[in-house]
Amino acid sequence: MPPVETSVFELFRIGPGPSSSHTIGPMRAAARFLAELERLDASQRNEAVQVKIHLYGSLSATGQGHGTVEAVLAGLLGHEPETAPPDILEQLRTHPAQHRLALGDRELPLSAGDVIFDTLDHPFPWPNTLRFLLYGPGGVLLEREYYSIGGGFLLEKGEEAAAKRPRLPYPYQNMAECKTQLTTHGLRLHRLMLENEKALTGASENEIYDRLEHLLDCMEQAVDRGLQTSGVLPGPLGLQRKAPALHHRLQSVVYEQEKILLALNAYALAAAEENAAGHTIVTAPTAGASGIVPAVVYLLSHSLGLGRRALCQGLLAAATVGFLAKHNASIAGAEVGCQGEVGVASAMAAALVSYAKGHRFRVTENAAETALEHHLGLTCDPVGGYVQIPCIERNAMGAIKAYNGFLIATAVAPTLYKVDLDKVIQAMAATGRDLLPKYRETAAGGLALCLGNC
Ligand code: SF4
């Protein structure tokens, strides 16, 4: 197996919720297809009459509730996830229209009806597959197949073999190898991450810190927007936002020991509710779980007064955990259930708290391990296919478990820990393989089944 070769900024992506694999991935796929269309020569463009997009797997099963149609339209209309208006999906949903897809000096008609919910079962190698087809009068002129593989990551058919990345100064496949690199070279974890990131992206250290601070700003903006927005979330569930009410209670809380719980709940719900509204969030590692890392960032920054540099280094520690989960298991609910989304986010947040507070590597690893261990087996069962029930409250629970993971990890000498992070990631992968498809983002089992008619 090759070493981890992911950039921090591929794991933490800015874009519209409510599901990175259903919105950010498809939007990036559509933008990539648009770039292909722009490369067509004039005679091919003149022949083109229409575009059709087929969604497969859980994109087909829950794409309606997850905003996949609007994400695909936004990408084909020239929007990128990072720079699109925060409410772009909402605009497209609430003002359905006949759009015009620019094709050189021509335009093709484009509407939601051109996005087709195809089969749940399919022969493609990844669960969430999109096929883009450009038709002329005589048949297909151009066809592309993309896989949305979780966390906004995207692959194109045949791309796996072609993806060649620069050699990293400190390669590792798992936590054990990462630990060996740290001890052999006398490095702290954030230094190893910075050196690898520099080699991978060519960015300078200052540029990396600037981008990390931008991520922190975007996370805090999502929390701030959510704390200030009340009302009902979009979709048929009629779910009331809760973050502003909890935040209000925080101002007048009597019992001091409730404060941290109320704060984490309010902050996690705020960002998760913004995600459910389809607004801009940061995947951490996914959109569905995008309330957990921002909740601890907001707590550490606003309640505990930690500085920007400590938080950036905490984000790098969180990214290490996300990388390892993605590399050795999965961070996609469609592959391993919610343990890969909320469970991994909780582990990342636990690592962030530990590292940002100045703890060394072993405590950071143990905190992440503890948080993930107690999410093993968590299924993905979004009611009606909407990233609302149980997803939003699950973010609040994940944030609490993250902080608790940190507290437990500091209770005994780090070397007394019996389970290491590699083992729990292996367990997550094995458990995910055993989960029936109805528990993997198809909205066909668990709460989605029991509350299906609400
Ligand atoms: S249940 Fe978990 S994995 Fe599934 S959509 Fe909700 S947050 Fe994502």
How does this structure look, described?
There is one protein chain. With 454 residues, this protein is α+β, with helices and mostly antiparallel strands. Helices cover 51% and strands 10% of the residues. It has 20 helices and nine strands. A five-stranded mixed beta sheet has the order 5-2-6-7-8. Strands 1-9 form a two-stranded antiparallel sheet. A two-stranded antiparallel ribbon has the order 3-4. Iron/sulfur cluster binds at residues 19, 288-289, 333, 338, 341-342, 380-382, 387, 390-391, 394, 441.
Tell me the domain tally. Answer: 2
- Overall residue-averaged pLDDT value: 94
H/I helix tally? 20
Distance between the termini: 45 Å
Low-confidence stretches: none
Strand content: 5-15%
Order of helices and strands: HEHHEHHHEEEEEEHHHHHHEHHHHHHHH
**Which small compounds were modeled alongside the protein?**
iron/sulfur cluster
Helix percentage range: 40-55%
- Structural class, by secondary structure, is alpha+beta
The rounded Rg comes to 22 Å
Oligomer: single chain
